[in-house]
Amino acid sequence: MAWASRERTAPGTTLGVVDNERIYLSPPDMSDVERTMMLEAFDSNWIAPVGPDLAAFEAELGRWTQRSHVAALSSGTAALHLALLLLGVGRDDEVLVPTFTFVATANAVLHAGATPVFVDSSDQDWNLCPDLVNETLERKAASGKLPKAVIAVDLYGQCADYARLEPICARYEVPLVADSAEALGASRDGKAAGSQGVLAALSFNGNKIITTGGGGALLANDEALVSRARHLATQAREPAPHYQHVEPGFNYRLSNLLAALGRGRTVRGLPDPDEDPGSGRADRYHHALYGLGRAGADQFSRAGLLGRSGPNGMGAVGPGGADGSHRASAADSGARDRRGQCAAAVQLLASGLGLDGRLSNLR
After folding, report:
1. pLDDT at 315
2. Which of the residues 34, 111, 219, 243 has the least number of beta carbons within 10 Å of its own beta carbon?
3. With bands split at pLDDT 50, 70 and 90, how would you rate the model's confidence at 264?
């Protein structure tokens, strides 16, 4: 059962050659369209972080995310860093971030000189818990020091609950930033990933929805914010006929060449679940997990890998227990080999997916 295809070639292999020995989590989705557009940009000699493909890529990202203004940058981390600087985050400030996210979210806060304050995630969608955000802001307000910003992360392509987060943050006048690095093309409550918050960040790293090899974008509806971001991202160079700088800046802009690579994917459109070669994968996981039923859920629970039971009696393989904590039961504490638990859980899942003979390749 090979899931790879011409358009999902594994890293290090030739385009069109299928790797039947390994299932990759998120291989780049490249085609002849990307190759052609990148070569055209190369032949045009627009290589630097300025050019027609860069401007077009930003416009297409704005259309996808329902944003008026976009700055294409060198990484999603750069986008988060600039977002915090634009909001005035600095030394001695605090920023709320979810416990369950990639380290870049917290790193951006540290780059700005501030302190990340970790708030637990919801067992419903694994994203920042609105109830806990509300409790934290209430407590911080009572202490006389509110955080300078809140960052919500759209984890694994699942948008956070902005319908609840935005009014909570607005009540305390704390700006909300959306880290949509992993969710381009997703939506929730009819709103596209990247369309929420005062500012939002995307990533185009090699394992993201679309890739430019490395890259990101900062999104906003405020033209002044994005204009300021572009200024800071190009070493804060002043509009003078010579090199003039009055403040420190960053080398954060995306090159026109890499923007052309990203445009290849945008020209083809976001992956269509009805046409994409991997479209059946989500269905296979859904049916395999659903088929495990209560017996399978109980096995995961005994392994300490399930939180509160979800719909249909199935637990959610998530970040914590029913109280949002990360505590194991006293009976399990120190009595089980965690590696063995995970191996048993993976074996159970693989059995449901019909992958028993390929566990050595699931890395």
Report:
1. 31
2. 243
3. confident
